[in-house]
Design goal:
TIM Barrel, about 375 residues, two-stranded antiparallel ribbon, alpha/beta, 9-stranded mixed sheet, 13 strands
Length: about 375
């Protein structure tokens, strides 16, 4: 649990704007979803303070630096302009002597943990070669790839600041600056029973240069040894397009996937919950959608959404699903159960009824491949 409030603060009505008081309004956040969407300026003035407090706890910058004379990082939506001795929003880039120094996330070194995850995993990509799709070009078996593993790469930085983060431990990694690993060393972990690599985190966005270097080496390894090594990214989609386009091409050619976490559709809600705009995420999703027909037999692009009670309801999912369907109604979409964690630990676990309502809303918008993920987390008690 991360504590940012005293007892008196938590005794106030959950929504500090309209006074709404029920279990679906986080006292920690301090505003309800209606006020976020319809009284946005007032709501964001409240949530912005919470984002700052949550980041100061980990010695991360309050906001993306925008120093007029600063140096531009150029990797993601935050467009950090970093002044002398300032640090970028992700915590990995610093300006020293009017020169940007990337402490990690370069082609040479990444800040990450890695492990082997036996296949088939509970991956967001529920239609993929690990289940036999694309056999024999992209899969070793005409069915689940039992006996093989995924090399899971957990990057220790992020360009968002999600208050409901389910992997909040990554925030400690920029401060410790370990473990560090080179691209070559990471590729050495791709033994003959590894059939795919998945970059996640945190988020791979701030360290996209490293993941692309790893991918290049992995593709060369696969070609040299005539092996299958699929390459996948699971990301908030906020990296700048030239980098994400390269990732898309690696995924496309290797039989891998790009899994974009569409946390919200409406920008005010994304700003309130994640601290950063989602405009670039949505635009990147559209651009990747243009590659779908280059490999129509196996889905390239996946969407997913965490169902945060009280904030990401069926109407928000309906808007996301409509957006996806306009690109291609066959794009797979996973609805994921929320578990109280990080700052928003005062909300209930996603209920099955909530998930079912969202599932129906997504189908109503025309999506043909929708499923509810991590069913074991769902509560039988509705709210």
């Amino acid at each position: 649990m991360f504590r940012f409030f005293g007892k008196k603060e938590l005794e106030r009505p959950p929504c500090k704007i309209c006074g709404k008081n029920d279990s679906l309004v986080s006292k920690k956040l301090g505003v309800c979803v209606d006020c976020i969407l319809h009284q946005t300026e007032k709501a964001l003035a409240i949530t912005d303070k919470l984002h700052v407090a949550s980041r100061q706890h980990f010695d991360l910058p309050d906001v993306p630096p925008q120093t007029t004379t600063g140096l531009k990082c150029g990797l993601c939506v935050n467009d950090c302009r970093i002044g002398e001795n300032e640090v970028g929003y992700c915590g990995l880039v610093v300006n020293k002597g009017n020169k940007l120094i990337r402490k990690a996330g370069t082609p040479e070194v990444g800040l990450l943990d890695w492990y082997y995850d036996p296949l088939p995993t509970n991956c967001v990509a529920f239609i993929c070669p690990a289940h036999g799709h694309g056999y024999p070009k992209y899969a070793y078996k005409d069915g689940p790839e039992h006996g093989y593993s995924n090399l899971a790469v957990f990057y220790g930085a992020c360009g968002f600041n999600c208050l409901f983060c389910q992997n909040a431990q990554y925030r400690e990694m920029p401060r410790r600056l370990r473990p560090l690993i080179s691209a070559e060393e990471l590729v050495s972990k791709v033994h003959k029973r590894v059939s795919c690599i998945c970059y996640f985190g945190g988020d791979p966005g701030p360290q996209m240069l490293h993941s692309l270097a790893v991918s290049k080496h992995a593709v060369q390894l696969a070609e040299r040894e005539k092996r299958i090594v699929r390459i996948c990214w699971e990301t908030n989609g906020s990296a700048n397009w030239p980098l994400l386009k390269k990732a898309t091409n690696f995924a496309l050619e290797s039989g891998g996937t790009i899994k974009i976490d569409l946390k919200t559709f409406h920008e005010p809600l994304n700003l309130a919950l994640c601290g950063v705009t989602n405009r670039q995420t949505l635009e990147n999703f559209k651009k990747i959608g243009e590659f779908i027909q280059d490999r129509p037999d196996i889905p390239l692009l996946f969407g997913s959404t965490l169902l945060v009670p009280g904030y990401v309801d069926e109407e928000e999912v309906r808007a996301i699903a409509s957006f996806i369907a306009d690109i291609d109604p066959t794009i797979p979409y996973a609805l994921l159960g929320f578990y109280p964690h990080f700052v928003l630990d005062d909300l209930p676990t996603t209920s099955k009824a909530h998930a079912d309502r969202c599932l129906n809303a997504a189908k109503d918008e025309g999506l043909s491949r929708v499923r509810i993920g991590n069913l074991h987390l769902l509560s039988s008690t509705d709210y």
